[in-house]
Amino acid sequence: MTRVDFYILADVEDVARYRFACRLAGRAATKGKRVHVRADEDAVDVIDEVLWDYPRDQFLPHARFAPEADRPLEPVVVGAAADTPAHRDVLINLTAGIPDFFAGFERVCEVLLSAQRAQGRAKYRQYRERGYPLFHHELDDWE
Hints:
single chain, alpha/beta, Rossmann fold, seven-stranded parallel sheet, globular
């Protein structure tokens, strides 16, 4: 069954969410997992840029979602909310909604800022009502 982790960051800027998503993606990729980072259309370019620069001491191979790429070579793929990934290891969800395809993943990571708690609670209830195992992480000083 899909494990769902909620990460609540004390930060106030979305770029902190993107950096944290990069950190999660890097950890999963080093364990041999394939990661799909799901973001709003206007954030995909920003996340792609952050992946080139963060963390500074290492390079994380990644690609933009391409519908024709059945299984991209890169361990991390960044896609918009409308994209449906082919691989199903780790989903890092940075959008307001829960994708219909989430249950096909081993793990879902919901990354939220403190100001997005209401949105997070609504998602938490939806996952709980469906019976998924949920884990909650409050992160004050994660960098």
